[in-house]
Amino acid sequence: MRRTTVSLMSLALALSGGAPVLAQQIAVPEAARANPAVWPHAASPAAITDARAEAFVTELMARMTLEEKVGQLIQADISSITPDDLKTYPLGSILAGGSSGPWGDDKAPAQKWLDLARAFRAANEARGGTVIPLIYGIDAVHGHNNVPGATIFPHNIGLGAARDPNLIRRIGAATAVEVAVTGAEWTFGPTLAVPRDDRWGRAYEGYAEDPEVQRAYAGPMTLGLQGELRAGQPLAPGHIAGSAKHFLADGGTFEGEDQGDFRGTEQELIDVHLGGYVQAIDAGVLSIMASFSGWNGVKHSGNPTLLHDVLRGPLGFKGFVVSDWNAHGQLPGCSNESCALAINAGIDMLMAPDSWKPLYVSTLAQARSGEIPASRVDEAVRRILLAKVKTGLFEPARPMEGRFEELASPAHRALARDAVRKSLVLLKNDGVLPLRANARVLVAGTAADDIGQASGGWTLSWQGTGNSNADFPQGQSIWAGIEEAVKAGGGTATLSTDGAFTDKPDVAIVVFGETPYAEFQGDVDNLDYVPTAPLETLKRLKAAGIPTVSVFLSGRPMWTNPEINASDAFVAAWLPGTEGGGVADLLVGGVDGKPRHDFTGKLSFSWPRDATGAPLNHGQPGYDPQFAYGYGLSYAAPATVGALSEESGVAESAASLDRYFVDGRFVSPWSLLLNDAGGQTRPGTAKTSSSPRGGVTTRPVDDLAQESAQQFVFAGQGEASVEIWGTPIDLTRQANGAVALGFRYRVDAAPSGPVRFSLGGGSTDLTPLLRGAPVGEWREARIPLTCFRTDGGDLSRVEVPFRMATGRALTLSISEIKLDASQTETRCPG
After folding, report:
1. In Å, what is the CA distance from 698 to each residue of 121, 143, 516, 750?
2. Which class for 809: exposed (0-12), middle (13-18), buried (19 or more C-beta within 10 A)?
């Protein structure tokens, strides 16, 4: 590919006279070089700054040392920095990333979050020199989703179905208040991704597959978060700075790969993926986050033609640009600890969660040497400081802090419930809905009474796993909402997760769907909804003559034709959050059977006709979905849905024959089971057996990427096991070809007794391997499949390709479980 050199002579303007001051040269391939002349125009409002703020910042910068200026360019995560560190390092920003909580407590109460913010502020002010307030950012992406007790709104995929810009502005305002209460001043939102491949694990963070919804929502969400900018005034109390993300085309990567590459034309970037950025900039968004992803092979974080020529040119953006989590380390010639390229290309603030200390040292050295020109440092610092002034960080008063009554206030909960009602999409209704309030209602499905599953990823923890209803004291599960509505109408409601009943009900509601996930780990190979238990429950109820209603929870449209066929009504509920009563508002009518509320939600993502997962977006050639973009039934406008094809188009197990746990996720159709003396539990519940005889718990930990591994803690009080199970597969051929089961592991606490490892019924002794491994060190293991065949295992029908069991204490972290055909010589352990 021919490479061209883009001059950045015009990257910055001198503070006086507007003359170009930076002559850094960065080579960009022609296929990834933007032409500013073809982009639409936008402009940050004039009120984003003013003469007084400019003069204040100019005077401030005149007093700042180079060390203090460079500190403004670096952002650290609270899990990797302490308040005491700020007494030495003059950083400009901290963030609380996914699963990061105050002093390591990601379930910390609101007061502890506020205490953390104040501790960092106090340490920053105690350092001496030119003290610049920190800006503290957090991912409040569907409400203040980091703090137990806050309002959790539906994820964006559901809000997109609402088609209600005013609702979005009100949600932004409520979120801002709840964040401000706990001491943060900046959220990484609105998310303006336009997901074009539903296999992407962040699809639910996008409002729609068509940028028309992002264009309608970007301005209102920005105004909700920040309020309207006023000249000479900081943001009004209760408002926080926003950050439109992720610039650009994060939703357009090839095959939906997270942090991948958009392979397309500049016109596609403009027509589709520019989405709502014009409207967010026009509304005054104070920052923009650059995407991990790239365009035609060039990562955005190192592409000055987008970060400067377009963003600072026709788009007229006057705020600052922050990078994503260690994204600078993915640029050529860079590492997490050193990257002048990103700053020179137009990144103003580097998000360096755990690499901040060496990155500060290297960036300071690069600024001293001129590798990062002084003009570029000053430009970035000025942008950041002006945003801090506008955010009100130099103001002494913080009137919203500590007003914890604003968290999940009655007004905010009512707003969230309204958002749930407006987000649900009725795909099918053969006359069973609405339910009479005085009916006998059976509610089934493991998701019915699980607020964590209804809330999805980015809820208390990064992946949204490990949450129980106790973590949502302000919340109401879907089951609880239905029970309340039915009892109020004189009916009865019974919860039975497996659908079993003694007295035949009038109707059954089955709540099921995807378990929580977030970026990276949420990527899937296809859109087949694999778990079979919900379908079996639906068929069993149908055979008993009971009308059935399915409530499907998901972060993307999925191929569910068998489940739809087995249901008399089917509702796409997306990820509704903590107000399950909003679901009941639509399902349960009055005693007379008339609806209390009608369905208004319309699909903002096309529903697939098969499970292959190939991009399906309205307007594309050959568009033929099961349910089209904009589809949605209502009580006022019913329609009949006939029998749907149950040919998925995906060969069973073909996509996951050799991969079981990759990138922190269990690859479909494989799932995790924890077994102990108390029974079984599915992943994400962090169950500890109540029995004194045993117990095993799990939590995500970091390996090759953030939370890409699972740590298993065996209590050592009785037999317990961890297993991966799914659809039976034939591994006979792989065993004959000397294939091994490979996995990465780290012994965190050595086993105090024997550890058995099983596959397909055969087993081997893993104890010598684990006892011989250094504690705390990641290692690779390869166990030939023949080890299990010779021990009596049946490799022709493997339903459990991974099982580890012990009755003694052991703490072990594991990642990347898959078949390994590398032919590396290995022996059976033990």
Report:
1. 35, 27, 15, 16
2. middle
The burial of 193, by beta-carbon neighbours within 10 Å (0-12 exposed, 13-18 middle, 19 or more buried), is given as buried
Task: Determine the Cα–Cα distance for residues 181 and 330; give it in Å rounded to an integer.
Answer: 35
Burial 645-668 (b: 16+ CB within 10 A, else e): eeebbbeebebbbbbbbbbbbbbb
> Comparing C-alpha atoms, which of 175, 268, 164 is closest to residue 216?
164
Q: Name the nearest CA neighbour of 702 among 114, 291, 98.
A: 98
Q: Rounded to a whole number, what is the distance in angstroms from the first to the last CA of the chain?
A: 52
- Taking 50 as the pLDDT cut, the residues of the chain under it are 1-24, 653-655, 680-693
pLDDT (0 to 100) of residue 791:
61
Q: State residue 708's pLDDT score.
A: 82
CA torsion sign, 60 to 65 to 69 to 72? negative
* Tokens 């204040």, residue located: 56
Q: Name the strands in the sheet holding 320-322, side by side, starting at the edge strand that comes first in the sequence.
A: 243-247, 287-290, 320-322
Q: How far apart are CA 510 and CA 479, in angstroms?
A: 10
Which pair of tokens denotes residue 819? 């078949």
Examine the residue annotation and report whether 519 is marked as an active-site residue of this protein. yes
Residue 653: the pLDDT is 46
Q: Are 4 and 30 in contact (CB under 8 A)?
A: yes
Whose CA is closest to 332, among 26, 85, 49, 108?
26
Q: What is the largest CA-CA distance in the chain?
A: 83
Burial class (CB in 10 A: 0-12, 13-18, 19+), 737: exposed
Q: What is residue 378's predicted lDDT score, i.e. its pLDDT?
A: 98
Q: How confident is the model at residue 393, as a pLDDT? A: 98
Return d(Cα 460, Cα 112) in angstroms, integer. Answer: 14
**Four-residue CA torsion sign, 311, 316, 322, 324:** negative
CA distance 553 to 573: 5
- The pLDDT score that the predictor gives to residue 657 is 67
Q: Length of the chain in residues, anyone?
A: 830
Under a CB-based contact definition with an 8 Å cutoff, are residues 393 and 135 in contact?
yes
Helix/strand/coil percentages in the chain, nearest 5: 30, 20, 50
Q: What sign results for the dihedral spanned by CA atoms 821, 253, 284, 331?
A: positive
Q: What is the pLDDT of residue 610?
A: 97
In the residue annotation, 324 being an active-site residue is answered as yes
pLDDT tens by residue, 24-65: 478 999 999 999 999 999 999 999 999 999 999 999 999 999
Which residues 6+ apart lie within 8 Å of 798 measured at CB? 728, 729, 730, 731, 759, 760
Q: Which residues contact 829 (CB under 8 A, 6 or more apart)?
A: 757, 764, 765, 766, 768, 769, 781, 783, 787
Our CA angle for 243, 386, 21, nearest 5°, is 105
Query: How high is the pLDDT of residue 691?
Result: 31
**Whole-number Å distance between alpha carbons of 279 and 759:** 55
pLDDT digit string (tens) for 110-129? 999 999 999 999 999 999 99
Q: Cα dist. 752→198, 689, 764, 772 in Å? A: 45, 20, 17, 13
Provide the pLDDT for residue 792. 66
Is the link from the previous residue into 154 a cis peptide, with omega within 30 of 0?
no
Structure tokens at 410: 């009655």
Per-residue H/E/C for 40-105: CCCCCCHHHCCHHHHHHHHHHHHHCCHHHHHHHCEEEECCCCCHHHHHCCCCCEEEECCCCCHHHC
Residue 235, token pair as written in the block:
């943001």
Of 106, 261, 519, 663, the catalytic one is: 519
The active-site residue, picked from 205, 210, 324, 378, is 324
pLDDT at 481: 98
Please provide residue 789's backbone torsions phi and psi, each rounded to the nearest 5 degrees.
Answer: -70, -40
